[in-house]
Automatic annotation (TrEMBL):
Lineage: Archaea, Methanobacteriati, Methanobacteriota, Stenosarchaea group, Halobacteria
Protein name, per record: Cupin
Organism: Candidatus Halobonum tyrrellensis G22
Pfam families according to UniProt: Cupin_2
Keyword Phosphoprotein: no
Keywords assigned by UniProt, alphabetized: Metal-binding
């Protein structure tokens, strides 16, 4: 049996990210899922780019604030205490809109924790192909 308590405040933020990212799953020694805590101020994005995953399922739990998630069909507003699930192959870009009043804090879970599974998605390229 194994147990660990992790305080996200004790985990160093990842460098070179568009918002604060703390890899709490790594700090807990988890191997079958990625667990990250994000804190985005107004105008900050959570991922590095609009993207989709080949294999990974993602789940965003909004701890505080309101998360905006842009998809090819619409932008979802995910309120505090709500979950947003993303299937593999589904493009999304999570962010805190510039006009937001407060930061948003999100706990993101991805499984499996596949390295190099994120693919960039360009919504303009898709609409150009349709036209």
């Amino acid at each position: 049996m194994g147990y660990r308590v992790v305080d996200p405040a004790d985990v160093d933020p990842a460098p070179d990210r568009p918002c604060e990212l703390r890899r709490v799953g790594e700090a807990a020694g988890l191997e079958r899922m990625a667990v990250n805590r994000f804190r985005a101020r107004p105008g900050e994005e959570i991922p590095l780019a609009y993207h989709y995953h080949d294999e990974q399922e993602e789940l965003f739990y909004v701890v505080a604030g309101t998360l905006a998630v842009e998809t090819p069909d619409r932008t979802y507003e995910v309120s505090e205490g709500s979950l947003f699930a993303v299937d593999p192959g589904s493009p999304q870009r999570a962010h805190n809109p510039a006009e937001a009043d407060d930061p948003v804090t999100v706990l993101a879970v991805g499984a499996p924790p596949v390295a190099d599974d994120a693919n960039p998605y360009d919504p303009d390229a898709e609409s150009d192909a349709e036209g």
